[in-house]
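Dear colleagues,

For the upcoming journal club I promised to circulate an example of a predicted protein-ligand complex. I picked one with magnesium ion because it came up in last month's discussion. The inputs are reproduced below in full, followed by the predicted structure.
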Amino acid sequence: MQKQSPNLLDKTVLRAAAWLAFKKLTPKAAATNPVMFVVLIGTVITAFFTVQRLFAGQPFGFELTTTLLLLFTVWFANFAESVAEARGRGQADSLRSAKRALKARRIKNGNEENVDADLLRKGDRVRVVQGEYVPADGEIVKGVATINESAVTGESAAVLREAGGDHCGVIGGTKVLSGEFEFEVTADPGHSFLDRMIGLVEGAQRQKTPNEMALTVLLAALTMVFILVVVTLPPMAHFMGVSLDYTMLIALLVCLIPTTIGGLLPAIGIAGMNRALAANVVAKSGKAVEVAGDVDTLLLDKTGTITFGDRQATRFMSAGNTPVVDLVNAAVLTSYEDPTPEGKSVLELAEREGYRVPERPVSADYIPFSAETRLSGITLADGTTFVKGASDAITAWADARDIRIPDDLKALVKEVAQSGGTPLVVATDAQILGVIALTDVIKPGVAERFARLRALGVRTVMVTGDNPVTAGVIAAEAGVDDFVAEAKPEDKLNLIRAEQAKGRLVAMVGDGTNDAPALAQADVGLAMNSGTQAAREAGNMVDLDSDPAKLLAVVEVGKQLLITRGALTTFSLANDVAKYFAIIPAVFAGALPAIAALDFMGLHSPISAVLAALIFNALIIPALIPLALRGVKLRPMTAERLLRNNMLVYGLGGVALPFVAIKVIDVLLSLVL
Ligand SMILES: Nc1ncnc2c1ncn2[C@@H]1O[C@H](COP(=O)(O)OP(=O)(O)OP(=O)(O)O)[C@@H](O)[C@H]1O
Ligand SMILES: [K+]
Ligand SMILES: [Mg+2]
């Protein structure tokens, strides 16, 4: 479900960007971009020459044209960045409309008071009822509600949020459709998700990523090299008895330095962030999006990520001679206070099948389900305990109590597991009663996405708390590369560490508090917005749609960012090399007949050659803006093949294009000059 991003050539966007690009024509703004800074200095110098010649009564047409072309080059570079920013700004406006003046019922010392939402602070308790807007970001501590989050996510389907689980997160500005709850505020005003998103799309919080920094340094170094080359030209020319024109040298320098990629680099980065946002993913930094493109291993859990995660009980299968009613009764007792989908569905199945089940006990100790123990249960007032859980967990529990394992248990567990279902073994402290079969459905399309990721060189590993047989069946059906079964939360963390120790970059997704350490350890940690505050803080990205499969899209957005940057860098550098060979002979041909042999382009005159190159050099920036913003199309192939293809297309294309374009512009100029 992608949010509609404004049209690339939307008139209002372009107009806003054009103005913004003018405002950026300052030395301070240019200073962040070394290549453009050099062009700006060149502009000032050629402008000086223009004025000088004007006052000396000499012809100044070439100087003036060069000055204007250089100014346009910087303006086009600013324009590219501004279009990317302005496109984000449109998104920010629609987000800002979700931020309205909200009221809150704050609870203080047991009393309720009406306050402006601006006054809410971290830790405050607030009550919200049906029909109201959630006044701040927070976690539900009491109650349950369905919420329409469309103001923030663009998704209009109602979502369920409740206390005490991994789905307790609420976002300020969203609307409560039904139910009521109390929540604890987790963000001060100005630091909410909405605020963060708005800041991100407006580029206010944009910092250069490490890769972008490295590339900027490289481009600056190249610029330095070309400055040295051009500076040594006059003495050399002088030695050969040729005197060179300084305006022409500056024009030559600008043609040679990497202005194309220098001008498009910021736009490419912003566009990547915008694409992540359009997919409803809030990255805490541009770096996170970029790292996602380099990820080698993707850790996914099974339930809820690969499958829909709404595991439903579908069958009671008793073991040995145990009557099915005994199994059902025990299963029901363990589920009265089990709020998980699994627990609820056990009660529903018993009712649907018409069993007369025991009353809900008035006083009992409940054993809540945890991913650590992988079981849930109840101890009645008379001391009898009933548990249900993963087969290995219950077998271990039974072993510790010297409870005999029925002979046919293994076969029952296997039968459920082989169909891809999850067997829950039910036991009392006297015997093992049987198995509840839970079924879950694999999300459509995941197998194709994994195949696509594999083609891109990303390994997928499924980590699940489920048994190895079920895990194997689901893994095969979904087409993951590897799986780990019977995993506890800390196993995820260890797995991430092990992968990282092999020099791999790891991405994972999670929503629970127990996922937080792994989310923090992973290079890309995608937290679900529905998840706990701990998870949302630990991850470096948050998915507003709370769809764990979104991780796949995030990796693709990151890859596309890296590939686009690589392709345009190749193209830009190839261009510069070509321009060198296209215009140097023309510039020297008149003075040095020996070089005329190299002047295979047959350009009209040195002046038209240089102007043609400058015009091409300026126009190529806006011509590539659409590609920079949309991104190079991501085709499933390995990194090496991608690199080779890019070198072929963008490298060879980048070499060939300037020759053709400069020749055409030169012919047109010769008609004018
Ligand atoms: N409500 C429950 N009561 C008892 N046992 C449960 C309950 N829910 C799940 N289990 C058992 O605990 C195991 C671990 O559950 P957990 O939710 O940690 O992982 P999972 O959902 O199987 O896998 P994943 O990590 O892919 O989400 C399950 O495979 C199941 O056997
Ligand atoms: K250039
Ligand atoms: Mg789970």
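Two points we might discuss: The pocket of adenosine-5'-triphosphate (ligand 1) is lined by residues 301-304, 338, 340, 342-343, 369, 371, 374-376, 388-390, 422, 424, 464-466 (CB under 6 Å). The radius of gyration is 33 Å.

See you all on Thursday,
B. R.
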